[in-house]
Write a structure and sequence with these properties.
There is one protein chain. The protein is an alpha/beta fold. Among the domains are: about 200 residues, Rossmann fold (3-Layer(aba) Sandwich); about 50 residues, Immunoglobulin-like. Helices cover about 30% and strands about 20% of the residues. The chain is built from 18 helices and 28 strands. Strand 18 and strand 19 form a beta hairpin. Helix 6 runs parallel beside helix 9 and helix 11 crosses helix 15. The longest helix is centred in the middle third of the chain and has 29 residues. The two termini are about 35 Å apart. The mean pLDDT is about 95. The chain binds beta-D-galactopyranose. Belongs to the glycosyl hydrolase 42 family.
Length: about 675
């Protein structure tokens, strides 16, 4: 059995339900009540120790595990399993007092201070040694404890300190560069240091891209992103090594943050036993559930469809936005069921009991300040009971026929300065591609460039600025073998060293796409052009970006109407081998984008959803179950082809499922 499998076996095959538990913030008299209330709410797993380092090691080397022993024992007696943090997310103040150099330094040279959290330089030997000592002590102390179900390494790596620009980081950056390039000549070539007198004659002349008079070298920036993701990953690996050695039987995770720019989660996820994710969709944003679905799909995809954990969400409001609205009644349930639909086998929260002190005292919790009779706690208990009935979906897969390509290094490169436009944001562009597919209830996996794509009927590539020869060759083979590919503008512009492809773009994809892009022609904010079919049919509008596209075999499907490039190709289609490759050289409006993607799905033979539902109703199949989530404020009816039973309460729906505004249902079997 896989280590992750052991976690759910430990939970009796049930969905994990619980949250961060910070008993050290409360008098010991509260703990027994906590456990009782957890039991009443159906909690079976809690995360302990995330920010406990200063309480566990009050002075350097002086360990005080007594209180944690009692907490873990108490939870165990109450039948609640423990996701035990290694407690290294926030070093105690003594670390900075003894090692001021362990505090992180910003790009403009400011050394950050203590009194908050995550105040450490990822490359700091003092931090790393202390963290490894702590992780070792935790593993030695609790490795055999029967309550221990999962290791939670650190917490949200990079959330506040994604990179450090101090001298220690500079030294590690140089070592990283030496490993990458071998010698200075190779570095000088890759970084293009012939430009602006940047040539390096010795390794120690190289610095992180600190605040400089003008633009920094783009490859120095890109490599520093790579290095910074790796520096934090090295911290994780140091702890993971200890845990793997001392407790090989216990699965290990560290919590991610969805589409989080600083860390290359493809690299990270490969080193975890189970992916876990923290999701805080904004209750004030009417479409935040679409972003939540995208993040969920990414989390499921990071380990090839393996079930993942929603490690943190808010029971209601958070404290860290300028205005923090509570979740409306039913919203927390619906968004939790959405996570399960999209592959989560754990629904957890930050946090169990609302804090009375500290920066997060206005953050909601499973047990709010208002107590057990509150609305929020009532919804928590009801959801705990419902999740208890969803055991049949545990371990089940979410099938997808469409893949969306995403790469972190390309993201870092794309959003760098000195481009034809600095107004492109990859997350927005991914949303432009994701939203129409979400609306159509087409399931999506996210894959890295270079992945095996043969299982997918359609591959969507939003703005893959940086393209390796290997990834391009993979895409060519995919199309030649009959695959359908849709590539959006400003893709295939540079290679892995950010060197611009010569001879037109998208560099090594020109042949597959049957065209060459000669010039990038960005549009001003608010500038909108028409999109017309070759016969003049109105297809919609285009904004943000246009390109001078020279077809070389590709057929023009849409043209620009108006603007400097009026009449030029906006969308093209090219047969290559047994497949078809579409290029989108602009940003179509949402309806035009939806039409394009619908045509691509039809062309590629992508199956429709298991049920046809009104707009705003999410339909997801997971294993044999079908989840229906009504994200609208209206009651809706979803017709059934044949009767189906509810997994949540056993109700038999004959001809249709009636969903209340914001309501949800889970059908036990495919009803189409
Ligand atoms: C997360 C963090 C938690 C808590 C939460 C509040 O980023 O991991 O510890 O701070 O946010 O929303």
């Amino acid at each position: 059995m896989s280590p992750a499998g052991r976690l759910w076996e430990r939970l009796g095959g049930r969905i994990a339900f619980g949250g961060d538990y910070n008993p050290e913030q409360w008098p010991e008299a509260t703990w027994a009540e906590d456990v009782e209330l957890m039991q009443a709410a159906g909690v079976n797993l809690v995360t302990v120790g995330v920010f406990s380092w200063a309480m566990l090691e009050p002075r350097p080397g002086e360990l005080d595990f007594g209180w944690l022993d009692r907490v873990v024992d108490l939870l165990h007696e109450g039948g609640i399993a423990v996701d035990l943090a290694t407690a290294t997310a926030s070093p105690p103040p003594w670390l900075a007092a003894r090692h001021p150099e362990s505090l992180p330094v910003t790009r403009d040279g400011v050394r950050l201070s203590t009194g908050s959290r995550q105040a450490y330089c990822p490359s700091s030997p003092a931090y790393r040694e202390a963290a490894v000592r702590m992780a070792t002590a935790m593993a030695e102390r609790y490795g055999q404890h029967p309550a221990l179900a999962l290791w939670h390494v650190n917490n949200e790596y990079g959330a506040h300190t994604p990179a450090c620009y101090c001298d220690v980081s500079a030294r590690d950056f140089r070592a990283w560069l030496e490993r990458r390039y071998g010698d200075l000549a190779a570095l000088n070539a890759a970084w293009g240091t012939a430009f602006w007198s940047q040539r390096y004659g010795a390794w120690d002349e190289i610095q992180p891209p600190r605040l400089a008079p003008y633009s920094s070298n783009p490859v120095q920036e890109l490599d520093f992103h790579r290095f910074s993701s790796d520096a934090l990953l090295a911290c994780y690996e140091l702890e993971r090594e200890v845990l793997g050695r001392l407790t090989p039987q216990v699965p290990v995770t560290t919590n991610f943050m969805g589409l989080f720019e600083p860390l290359d989660y493809w690299d990270w996820a490969a080193r975890e036993d189970v992916v876990s994710h923290d999701a805080y969709p904004d209750p004030e944003d009417p479409v935040s559930h679409v972003d939540a679905a995208l993040a969920a799909d990414l989390m499921r995809s990071l380990r090839l469809g393996q079930p993942w954990m929603l490690m943190e969400q808010a029971a209601s409001a958070v404290n860290w936005r300028p205005r923090n609205r509570p979740k409306r009644p039913g919203a927390m349930r619906r968004i939790s069921l959405q996570a399960v639909a999209r592959g989560a086998d754990a629904i957890m929260y930050f946090q169990w009991r609302a804090a009375r002190r500290g920066s997060e005292r206005f953050h909601s919790a499973m047990l709010p300040h208002a107590g057990t009779r509150s609305r929020v706690h009532g919804e928590i208990r009801a959801l705990g009971a419902e999740l208890g009935r969803l055991a049949p979906v545990v371990g089940a897969r979410v099938p997808a026929q469409v893949a969306l390509l995403h790469a972190w290094d390309s993201w870092w490169g794309l959003e760098a300065p000195d481009h034809p436009s600095t107004e492109l944001r990859l997350a927005d562009r991914i949303r432009d591609h994701y939203r129409p597919l979400w609306d159509a209830n087409v399931p999506i996996d996210v894959r890295p460039p270079g992945a095996d794509l043969s299982a997918y009927r359609l591959v969507v590539v939003p703005n893959l600025y940086l393209l390796s020869a290997e990834a391009a060759a993979g895409l060519e083979r995919y199309v030649a073998a009959g695959g359908h590919l849709l590539v959006s503008f400003f893709s295939g512009v540079v290679d892995e060293q950010d060197a611009v492809f010569a001879g037109g773009w998208p560099g090594p994809l020109r042949e597959v796409l049957g065209l060459a892009v000669e010039e990038h022609w960005p549009l001003a904010p608010g500038e909108t052009l028409g999109l017309r079919g070759p016969d003049g049919t109105v297809l919609g509008t285009a904004s943000q970006w246009t390109e001078v596209v020279i077809p070389a075999g590709a057929e023009v499907v849409a043209q620009l109407a108006g603007g400097d490039l009026s009449g030029g190709p906006a969308v093209t289609r090219h047969r290559h081998g047994d497949g078809v490759a579409t290029y989108v050289a602009t940003r179509p409006d949402p309806d035009a984008m939806a039409a394009l993607l619908a045509a691509a799905c039809a062309d590629a033979g992508v199956d429709g959803p298991p049920l046809q539902a009104p707009p705003g109703v999410e339909v997801v199949r997971r294993g044999d179950a079908v989840f229906l989530l009504n994200h609208t404020g209206e009651a809706v009816t979803v017709p059934l082809a044949r009767s189906a039973a509810s997994l949540l309460d056993g109700t038999r729906h004959e001809e249709a499922v009636e969903l209340a505004p914001g309501g949800a249902e889970v059908l036990a079997e495919p009803a189409a």
